[in-house]
UniProtKB/TrEMBL annotation, chain A:
<feature type="domain" description="ABC transporter">
    <location>
        <begin position="21"/>
        <end position="250"/>
    </location>
</feature>
<dbReference type="InterPro" id="IPR027417">
    <property type="entry name" value="P-loop_NTPase"/>
</dbReference>
<keyword id="KW-0813">Transport</keyword>
<comment type="function">
    <text>Involved in beta-(1--&gt;2)glucan export. Transmembrane domains (TMD) form a pore in the inner membrane and the ATP-binding domain (NBD) is responsible for energy generation.</text>
</comment>
<keyword id="KW-0547">Nucleotide-binding</keyword>
<keyword id="KW-0067">ATP-binding</keyword>
<dbReference type="InterPro" id="IPR017871">
    <property type="entry name" value="ABC_transporter-like_CS"/>
</dbReference>
<comment type="similarity">
    <text>Belongs to the ABC transporter superfamily.</text>
</comment>
<dbReference type="Pfam" id="PF00005">
    <property type="entry name" value="ABC_tran"/>
</dbReference>
TrEMBL record, chain B:
<keyword id="KW-0813">Transport</keyword>
<dbReference type="GO" id="GO:0055085">
    <property type="term" value="P:transmembrane transport"/>
</dbReference>
<feature type="domain" description="ABC transmembrane type-1">
    <location>
        <begin position="71"/>
        <end position="254"/>
    </location>
</feature>
<feature type="transmembrane region" description="Helical">
    <location>
        <begin position="75"/>
        <end position="95"/>
    </location>
</feature>
<dbReference type="Pfam" id="PF00528">
    <property type="entry name" value="BPD_transp_1"/>
</dbReference>
<protein>
    <submittedName>
        <fullName>NitT/TauT family transport system permease protein</fullName>
    </submittedName>
</protein>
<feature type="transmembrane region" description="Helical">
    <location>
        <begin position="134"/>
        <end position="155"/>
    </location>
</feature>
<keyword id="KW-0812">Transmembrane</keyword>
<dbReference type="GO" id="GO:0005886">
    <property type="term" value="C:plasma membrane"/>
</dbReference>
Length: 272, 274
């Protein structure tokens, strides 16, 4: 059932279709020249759901910020749809942070509308697309609420709706459900999978949970401790669509065990 | 208090606390006035040394035509100084936020202006400026700095990820300022304005006193200086009372504005249990 667990540095050309995100020799050094990330080589195919799994502090957030163009790599290149990522704006990207990162003074509608307002989209279009995004995440009825009136899970849904409202090709998610209780997290996991099946966006999902990475993604990329590099990759085999039955299946448990072992190996070789 | 209490008891306790917070200061006030009255009466202290509360109140009523007009004058000066300080402080904070070089160039002088006692600057201002302008300038100098400092702090305390989001969606400088930085800074800005309200009254009073009896002014502080010169102690007290009341009203109004502006979303304006 489990496919490969190769120590490959570069993933062979993604199966079928274009490359949405391509990293080559990407490193990031913060002040005092300490390397926080890389070198990293990574290809993500259009429409693929990839999980980046690694211990905290290994540079997962840094990697996402580099892909989003929010920071510049110290060396190497980041390409989106075969164009340098520096030319942002041409490639719509959706970003979901670990915290909901909402504007507390604006309503749910105002928060979700933000990307379109910044792009000066026509009013009617904004209204229609915001309604659409809110319906997708199941928040149609909470449109006028303020963030403080929402639960943690609902805030995360607002954040997801905001990331979807521009209809981006690429969705970057930085441990979005890490702070939620398990019941809410499982429900959001399922809702995210449903969205991904419908919309077929390229998703790069950062997490430090082995179980979440295997449950959600088609491919798990295991990273080493700081500075984060790729230690191993796993293609997750499963019948689609996945649902709660997958979560309790023998195959799921086996793949989780394998990924866990790889994560432990990556950490221990580092410590040795 | 480890036993869980029913909501009704809870509500009654809250109401009692609220009542105490009003009743206790009022009781202190009444006590002070009563003690003041009897100290003056029992010791037969003449009004030109220490007028009793009754005399002060009667003076306030009798001299109302003079004192009322002075109150209006001082309040008008304070208002102008406050508005200048608010506009100046907020505008400077925005400029500093947009240009680091401007901040480096001007911030030291803003600080110097702030740390130099205004009572020492006032006489100079009175020489170089017409008196009403000088008084407003004093109120401005004392009051603008808290607005500047607080607004600057607010503009710089924007959530890093929210700022990243604006960058991701290609927001212009103006959009980031209007849609992100200014709303995020609003609670800080209002805190600065609350301090500035009281300070601009102090600035106005300091300038009126510095202008003294030589000045052509007619504000409350001028009345105090004038009454002191004429040993009209009851009127000094009456004017002082009005100044205090003005200060309290200004503070209360600004606190109210701040509450109304923030009550929908900011922690500081939300109830303790929401
Ligand atoms: N702005 C920054 N300045 C300096 N060091 C940073 C900064 N951001 C992250 N780091 C460092 O880079 C490393 C990776 O951080 P991060 O990407 O946030 O890790 P992760 O998301 O995997 O927990 C950490 O050791 C962190 O201390
Ligand atoms: Mg992180």
């Amino acid at each position: 059932m489990v496919d490969i667990a190769a120590q490959t540095a570069i993933d062979p050309a993604p199966p079928g279709g274009a490359v949405a995100v391509r990293l080559r020799g990407v490193t990031k050094c913060y002040r005092q020249g300490v390397r926080a990330l890389g070198p990293l080589d990574l290809d993500v195919a259009a429409g693929e759901f990839v999980a980046l799994l690694g211990p905290s502090g290994c540079g997962k957030s840094t990697a996402l910020r580099l892909i989003a163009g929010l920071a510049k790599p110290s060396s190497g290149t980041v390409e989106l749809n075969a164009h340098p990522a520096a030319r942002r704006g041409e490639h719509a990207i959706g970003f979901v942070f670990q915290e909901p990162t909402l504007m507390p003074w604006a309503s749910v509608r105002g928060n979700v509308a933000l990307p379109l307002r910044l792009a000066k989209a026509p009013r009617a279009e904004i209204a229609a697309r915001v309604d659409d995004a809110l319906t997708r995440v199941g928040l149609r009825d909470a449109a006028e609420a303020l963030p403080r009136e929402l639960s943690g899970g609902m805030k995360m849904r607002v954040s997801l709706a905001r990331a979807l409202v521009t209809d981006p090709d690429i969705l970057l998610m930085d441990e979005p459900f890490a702070a939620l209780d398990e019941i809410t997290r499982f429900r959001l996991n399922n809702d995210l999978l449903t969205l991904w099946r419908e919309l077929r966006k390229t998703v790069i999902f950062v997490t430090h949970s082995v179980f979440e990475s295997v449950y959600l993604s088609q491919r798990v990329i295991v990273m080493t401790p700081k500075p984060g590099r790729i230690a191993a990759e796993f293609h997750v085999a499963s019948d689609e669509p996945r649902d709660e039955a997958f979560r309790t299946s023998v195959g799921y448990a086996a793949q989780c065990r394998e990924v866990s072992a790889a994560l432990a190996r990556a950490s221990s070789t580092e410590a040795a | 208090m480890s036993v869980a209490r029913d909501p009704q008891t809870e509500a009654r306790a809250a109401a009692a606390t609220r009542l105490l917070r009003i009743a206790l200061p009022v009781a202190v006030l009444v006590a002070v006035v009563v003690v003041w009255h009897f100290v003056v009466k029992l010791n037969d202290i003449p009004p030109y040394l220490l007028p009793g509360p009754g005399v002060v109140l009667r003076t306030l009523i009798a001299d109302w035509p003079v004192l009322g007009a002075s109150l209006v004058t001082t309040l008008w000066t304070t208002l102008q100084g406050f508005l200048a300080a608010a506009a100046g402080g907020i505008a400077l904070a925005i400029l500093f936020n947009q240009s680091r070089y401007l901040e480096y160039s001007l911030l030291p002088y803003a600080i110097i202006l702030q740390v130099t006692p205004v009572i020492a600057i006032a006489p100079l201002l009175l020489i170089y400026l017409p008196q009403d302008t000088a008084v407003i300038a004093c109120a401005f100098i004392v009051a603008f700095f808290p607005v500047l400092a607080n607004t600057t702090l607010g503009l710089n305390s924007v959530d890093r990820n929210l700022a990243g989001l604006f960058q991701l969606y290609g927001a212009s400088r103006a959009q980031t300022l209007l849609r992100l930085k200014l709303p995020a800074a609003l609670p800080y800005m209002l805190g600065g304005l609350r301090i500035a309200g009281g300070l601009s009254l102090i600035g106005a009073v300091v300038a009126e006193i510095a202008a003294g009896s030589a000045g052509a002014g007619s504000g409350l502080a001028y009345r105090i200086a004038e009454s002191s010169y004429r040993l009209n102690i009851p009127r000094m007290f009456a004017a002082l009372l009005l100044l205090s009341l003005a200060g309290i009203v200004i503070y209360g109004l600004l606190a109210l504005v701040s509450h109304l502006a923030l009550r929908r979303w900011h922690e500081s304006a939300l109830g303790k249990d929401t």
